[in-house]
Specification:
InterPro entries: PFD_alpha_archaea, Prefoldin, Prefoldin_subunit_alpha. One of its GO terms (molecular function) is unfolded protein binding. This protein has 147 residues and is α+β, with helices and mostly antiparallel strands. The chain is built from two helices and four strands; from the N terminus they run αββββα. The chain has a two-stranded antiparallel ribbon. A two-stranded antiparallel sheet has the order 3-4. Strand 3 and strand 4 form a beta hairpin. The chain is rod-shaped.
Length: 147
């Protein structure tokens, strides 16, 4: 069976142990802030997809457009079906959807990421509070040893 986590007061730790805890907290904060940035980028991509779907309209039917094959490679093409788009649903699968359905799909993705961002933001704030408390404990210990 799993054992319950034992709580230890930071005041009971020596400076070396506090420094180890600080390093661990810094690593966790770096990881969380990197994850936050990656989620923000993903959210921006999904918002761009919503805008792109908005550009596919009946008025643009049979007009020449640039079709993205990759992030940096576009080829000219003609828009033959202005009512449907191909949506990347992940892991290499693509689905034909109506424009409204595609916007709904991407909007759901944006909302899902937003809820994760909010949760992650709370976690980051708590870790920063822990870091500030730890730094205060370390400073008081340093002052005690200097006295």
């Amino acid at each position: 069976m799993a054992q319950a986590a034992q709580q230890i007061s930071l005041a009971d730790l020596d400076l070396e142990q506090l420094a180890d805890v600080r390093r661990q907290l810094e690593e966790e904060l770096n990881h969380l802030t990197n994850s936050f940035a990656q989620l923000k980028q993903a959210q921006a991509k999904f918002k761009a997809c919503i805008e792109n779907v908005g550009e596919v309209k009946p008025a643009n039917k049979d007009k020449t457009i640039l079709v993205p094959l990759t992030n940096s490679l576009y080829v000219p093409g003609k828009l033959s079906d202005a009512e449907h788009v191909i949506v990347d649903v992940g892991t290499g699968y693509f689905v034909k959807k109506t424009r409204a359905s595609a916007v709904k799909h991407y909007s759901a993705k944006v909302e899902f990421i937003q809820s994760n961002l909010e949760t992650l933001e709370e976690t980051i704030a708590k870790k920063r509070e822990n870091m500030n408390y730890l730094v205060n404990v370390m400073q008081s210990k340093l002052q005690q040893t200097a006295s």
